Amino acid sequence: MTELPGFMNENVEDRRVPVRVLTGFLGAGKTTLLNRLLSNPAFSRTAVLINEFGEVAVDHHLVDKIDDSIVVLDSGCICCSVQGDLLRALKDVFQRGVRREIDPVERVLIETTGLADPAPIIHTLMQDMFVSARFHCDGVITAVDVTHAPGQLDAHREPVRQIAMADRLLLTKCDLTDPPTRASVVERLRVLNPGAPLVEVFGGEVGAEAFEACGIYDPGTKLPDVALWLGEEAARAKAERAPATSGPGAWRRPGAAPVARQPTRHDSDVQSFVLAFDQPLDWLEFSEGLSLLLAAYGHRVLRIKGLLNVSGDPLPRIVQCVQHAVYPPTTLPAWPESGPYADRRSRLVFIVRELPREEVAAILGSLFGQVPVSS
Ligand SMILES: Nc1nc2c(ncn2[C@@H]2O[C@H](COP(=O)(O)OP(=O)(O)OP(=O)(O)O)[C@@H](O)[C@H]2O)c(=O)[nH]1
Question: Could you tell me which residues belong to the region Disordered (predicted)?
Answer without folding.
Answer: 240-263
